[in-house]
Amino acid sequence: MTTAYEEKISPEYTMSTVMEEAQRCLLCHDAPCSKACPAGTDPARFIRSVRFRNFKGAAEIVRENNSLGGVCAHVCPTERYCQAGCSRCGIDRPIDIGGIQRFVTDMERRLQMEILRPGAPNGRHVAVVGAGPAGLEAAASLRRLGYEITVFEKRERPGGYLRYGIPAYRLPDEVVDADVAAIERLGVRFRCGVTVGTDVTMESLKAEYDAVLVATGAGEGKTLPLFDGDSRVETAVAFLARVRGNKGRGESIPDHALVVGGGDVAMDAATTLKKLGVRRVTDVAYEEFCEFLASAQELEGARNAGVTIIDGYIPVAVEGKAVVFRHRHIDAELRLAADKIILAVGQKADAAGLGLAMNGNEAQSRDYRTADEKIFVAGDIAPGDKTVVWAVRKGREAARAIHSSLEERRSR
Amino acid sequence: MISKDLSIDFLGVRFENPFCLSSSPVGNCYDMCAKAYDLGWGGVVFKTIGPAHFLIDEVSPRFDALTKEGTPFIGFKNMEQIAEHSLQENLADLRKLKEHYPDKVLIASIMGSNEKDWTELAGLVEEAGADMIEMNLSCPQMTSHAMGSDVGANPELCRAFCEAVKRGSRLPLMAKMTPNITDMVPVARACLAGGADGIAAINTIKSIVNLDLNRKVGLPIINGKSSISGYSGKAVKPVALRFIQQLRSGEGLSQLPISGIGGIETWEDAAEFILLGASTLQVTTAVMQYGYRIVEDLKNGLMHYMEEQGVDRLEDLVGLANASMVPAESLDRDYIVYPRLDEERCIGCGRCYISCYDGAHQALEWNEETRRPSCNTEKCVGCHLCVLICPVGALSKGDVVMKPGRKGKAEDKSI
Ligand SMILES: Cc1cc2nc3c(=O)[nH]c(=O)nc-3n(C[C@H](O)[C@H](O)[C@H](O)COP(=O)(O)OP(=O)(O)OC[C@H]3O[C@@H](n4cnc5c(N)ncnc54)[C@H](O)[C@@H]3O)c2cc1C
Ligand SMILES: Cc1cc2nc3c(=O)[nH]c(=O)nc-3n(C[C@H](O)[C@H](O)[C@H](O)COP(=O)(O)O)c2cc1C
Ligand code: SF4
Ligand code: SF4
Ligand code: SF4
Fold it and tell me: Of B73, B96, B411, B415, which is least surrounded by CB within 10 A?
């Protein structure tokens, strides 16, 4: 039995309703949607295939341009990317690109299509550290160029935040499983449960492999000194990872939970609490709604789940069971008593033991190359947006950087 | 991405894939044809070339479209005649195309007003490098009655003109048929007798598509008047398929080489033409509407279809459905297939009920409480109007029952 937590929120298209949506697409020249996809998934092209009833061809386009096309179809903040410039806005509202992509990748999964193919072996071997979307896409891209790939992952399974962060009601396990399995079938080797820096050293990887890509993400939730030692407090990423694992079974249910933060992670934590059955969930955000960080979809999801959202306040003190907030601009104070407090105030990179020179949360790099010619970086620790689709883009670009660097080294 | 060999031999010429531009403005000049080749079309039938003495003078505007609800271009009407460029320009373009694209198939469409024209044009296009000739015997809006579909409806003239073309050129020859005729077989036979090697079908259907209701004039309006002229696009596909089937059912014509034309937009349309006997396919309206890029999904979709069917050579699909089409009197009339309702899928709109009442046999009963239909098999004749109407596919083929007194078993029927 699926729990309330696992129930999917996005409706699914049928063959006829997806055609209705695809028919709304104007099949633009020099399509703005395709130009706006960070990973180059080329929505205009796959929507056109759907429109001309070539569903399998549509799946090929998605997959060949984006090894995590199934995942992206579920989690991309499309209103910021492909749908933002959609020409259809000149008539009414953008095409539901994410929905069409979900239909296409769901069909691909049902038909067990095998689209990705490894390249002819080139005799070189690359190690990837971290099996989040960036590491996964890099591994797939390099396999398609003929590299041997070993991915080291400290958790028990690949996926990064796809498996241990984003809630299952937005990103079902089977979608992650399918995308990861396709990459595994490409011949990528995974060594899970191995922490690089502790169980294996960077030095040994460098000695053994032609190049090392570090894509370890920003896995640790930030905290606020104000709450140090408070037993009610947990970071959102720790909370979400645990619930994702136990599917909400066996969680203790507080009476009133407080979430601090206004990004997608905060919305996910607050919505998850409601889905677990917490009666009162209040989210207090630093940003005001006019400058909100969370996507419109996530905000709406939280509101629909019954979360109370208060914008523009900063936590200033803890007084017994109550947390005191002050408004950032107005002379106003807020006191909220809570049994559980979840902090969603950002994540930080945990690159300890990897020998990377860091600039805050990002590793010092240029075009994915670091000072060490054998070490490359991608994903959340590389410059660019901190989203899955950007992790895919960075993974692929880093793979190209590795390829050209190794070609250069060989010709030297 | 799937990769399969789509090549096919047609009239002794090898096409890298069966998809060709049909003769029309989509293949009007060198640049257009070159772009089409670059994007993956296997062949081009160049815009019909006429004799130098026939002056082309076109109207403006020259198109109209039939639409329905949100669908643009159900069908498309045009008032164009043949190439607007001069004979010399057209021949120069053919020459350049063959030079730059030696492996792509270049077909010259020609049209004369007398035997001399046909013979001369045939010689000229062969000399310019065409791989094949298509005779346009079928344009329905020519300003001369010695040209176009008036000729194509007359078997004797068709035969004489085919012979004239054969005198001018030894290239493989297709005769392009007009659908503005009841039976195409006598015309096709006359063309074959005159030396044609294969048939291209269909050209456009004579039509009036819309009227301006205030001005009480047909569209498009040309200085207050309009004309009957050719209709093409998705709407004509059923008519084209019918003619192709009828050609192949003609005595001794079961292997007739055919280039299929009319309303092809998707790989599914293409597969239908192939299964009914077309070896190559030609497209105009869908290209005018969406661009040459549609060939990507035509080819890729056809490859996936071949893969699903376990077929490695396209020619193995040609004509596979011909035998399934039989005269109406030969059909099995011994059984009824009742509709079956999937209660889970039904959304309670009641459209099936309305259509069964107003357009069929009042067999569906409507439960006002549950908002669900149920079928009274005493009244239901199994016409399946309701199945076609249901917006969610909740009605489908259900129980098969023999009509009273008929021999045979319901379970043996292939429904
Ligand atoms: C709750 C939440 C919701 C989100 N929702 C969305 C969303 O809806 N849409 C969207 O686009 N983005 C979303 N994001 C952001 C997105 O998940 C990240 O931008 C993306 O996952 C970054 O990919 P990555 O590969 O760089 O890192 P990660 O996904 O963090 O993966 C890094 C991997 O490296 C492993 N690792 C770390 N250190 C080591 C080591 N030393 N040795 C071995 N392995 C190691 C980790 O275990 C992890 O598996 C969300 C993030 C969170 C936290
Ligand atoms: C604007 C237009 C011009 C055409 N001109 C020619 C022509 O010059 N010669 C010809 O043989 N057919 C001509 N045709 C007919 C097409 O080649 C084709 O037979 C017909 O349009 C049906 O195919 P379709 O439904 O793919 O358009 C023309 C069609 C259109 C729409
Ligand atoms: S921008 Fe919008 S309308 Fe244009 S091709 Fe993309 S999805 Fe279609
Ligand atoms: S389609 Fe081009 S040629 Fe035709 S009227 Fe418009 S601008 Fe002119
Ligand atoms: S048309 Fe279909 S959905 Fe509507 S009532 Fe009939 S069976 Fe139900």
Answer: B411
